[in-house]
């Protein structure tokens, strides 16, 4: 673990040249440091809505070096053609409005610009964006549910979810079926508002899903994201957080179970540009099977103006079988010494045989003991969801995924 507390020197970057154990790349139990020295300057092009501003990636770029480009089905080089491959259904409580708008609507892209070629391609290619709005001071007692179902084709999409000042809402975005999908999702959280978003990737085995999630957090507002990834051939998600006013708080939680042959990649950026804001990142993953590959990149940037920042990020990975690989890279860049606290941690390890032995010594069969240990590993993240039906479904899915390991 690497930590920085009230560093006296501005522009401090904790990466490969910083304290030990900041990142790891794991194959069959071996661990090596794999961290970069900066956060802000590692992208190959600045953010832009224009796909022409981004070169076609070749896999050598920092933001693409872990991604198997040949499995993106042309999303990265412009050869993918939209075929209407998804069906979207929105179920919302009374008082919530839903609109279909063009990209010239002022709310589209307000939360952030695309930061790579696929996100820019998605922005340039979608036909209509969906905007879901919660009026100011509206407190929803039922969740907004957005079902995205793949129907076998290629699609580009844009979703906007906006909360007015002092509104409160919980949104569940559920991805199922088979599709090749590139999308941008914007979350605009008004002053004093509270938004919880649960994004579930439960795709069929051949699906490809690449998405950028942009959250713009208002003054004294709270944003909580829970990302859950199970299915798909390749899933690459890029959650990003920026602050529009002081006192904003962001919590980013993630859970992923990576099976044989799957590539699951989560790349996060929390950009502290505003004073006296908080962020907390916790992602956990379990891997099993040959060529299961999980990538977690956690970037936190504390800019010079962001005095009073309090931030922490952590990634934990549990390798259940041989043949699985984890790349875990936390990055923390600090440009001011006037902070409350900042730290990051990453750890990857095998199944704990001592825990297994303890449970078996109490009369619990080995397969059940393994399930209990993995369920305990994920429990704190599942509990962040706050919806019993979704929590129960995810626990059942974890159990289903583990069947292959204990069989």
Question: Can you walk through the features of this model?
Answer:
This is Fe-S cluster assembly protein SufD. Belongs to the iron-sulfur cluster assembly SufBD family. Strand 3 and strand 4 form a beta hairpin. The chain is mostly beta strands. It folds into two domains: 351 residues, no CATH class; 55 residues, no CATH class. Helix 2 crosses helix 3 and helix 3 packs antiparallel against helix 4. The protein has a 20-stranded mixed β-sheet that branches. It contains four helices and 20 strands. The longest helix has 19 residues. It is globular.
Largest sheet: 20 strands, mixed
Q: What is the distance, rounded to the nearest whole angstrom, between the alpha carbons of the first and last residues?
A: 35 Å
Question: Mean pLDDT, as a whole number?
Answer: 87
The H-and-E topology, N to C, reads as: EEEEEEHEEEEEEEEEEEEEEHHH
Domain SUF system FeS cluster assembly SufBD core: 150-377
Pfam families: SUFBD_core
Biased composition (Polar residues): 1-14
Region (Disordered): 1-29
């Amino acid at each position: 673990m690497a930590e920085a507390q009230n560093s006296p020197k501005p522009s401090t970057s904790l990466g490969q040249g910083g304290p030990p154990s900041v990142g790891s790349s794991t194959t069959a139990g071996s661990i090596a440091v794999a961290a970069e020295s900066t956060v802000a300057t590692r992208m190959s092009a600045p953010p832009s809505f224009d796909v022409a501003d981004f070169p076609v990636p070749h896999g050598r770029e920092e933001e693409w070096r872990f991604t198997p480009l040949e499995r993106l089905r042309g999303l990265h080089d412009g050869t993918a053609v939209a075929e209407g491959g998804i069906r979207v259904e929105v179920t919302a409580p009374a008082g919530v409005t839903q609109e279909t708008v063009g990209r010239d609507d002022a709310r589209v892209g307000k939360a952030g610009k695309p930061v790579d070629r696929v996100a820019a391609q998605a922005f340039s290619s979608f036909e209509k964006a969906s905007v879901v709005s919660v009026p100011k001071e509206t407190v929803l007692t039922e969740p907004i549910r957005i079902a995205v179902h793949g129907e076998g084709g290629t699609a580009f999409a844009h979703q906007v979810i906006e909360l007015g000042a002092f509104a409160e809402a919980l949104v569940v975005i559920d991805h199922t079926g088979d599709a090749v999908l590139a999308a941008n999702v914007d979350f605009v959280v008004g002053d004093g508002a509270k938004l919880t978003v649960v994004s579930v990737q439960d795709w069929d085995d051949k699906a490809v899903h690449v998405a950028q999630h942009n959250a713009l957090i208002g003054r004294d507002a709270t944003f909580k994201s829970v990302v859950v990834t199970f299915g798909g051939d390749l899933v690459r998600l890029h959650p990003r957080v920026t602050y529009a006013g002081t006192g904003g708080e962001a919590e980013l939680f993630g859970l992923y179970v990576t099976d044989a042959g799957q590539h699951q990649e989560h790349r996060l950026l929390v950009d502290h540009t505003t004073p006296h804001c908080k962020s907390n990142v916790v992602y956990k993953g379990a891997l099993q099977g040959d060529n299961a590959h999980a990538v977690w990149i956690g970037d936190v940037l504390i800019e010079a103006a962001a005095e009073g920042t309090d931030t922490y990020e952590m990634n934990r990975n549990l390798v259940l079988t041989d043949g699985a690989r984890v790349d875990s890279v936390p990055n923390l860049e600090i440009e001011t010494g006037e902070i409350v606290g900042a730290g990051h941690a990453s750890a990857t390890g095998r199944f704990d045989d001592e825990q297994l032995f303890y449970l078996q010594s109490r009369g619990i069969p080995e397969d059940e003991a393994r399930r209990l240990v993995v369920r305990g590993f994920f429990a704190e993240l599942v509990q962040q969801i706050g919806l019993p039906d979704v929590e129960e479904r995810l626990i059942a899915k974890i159990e289903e995924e583990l069947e292959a390991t204990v069989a």
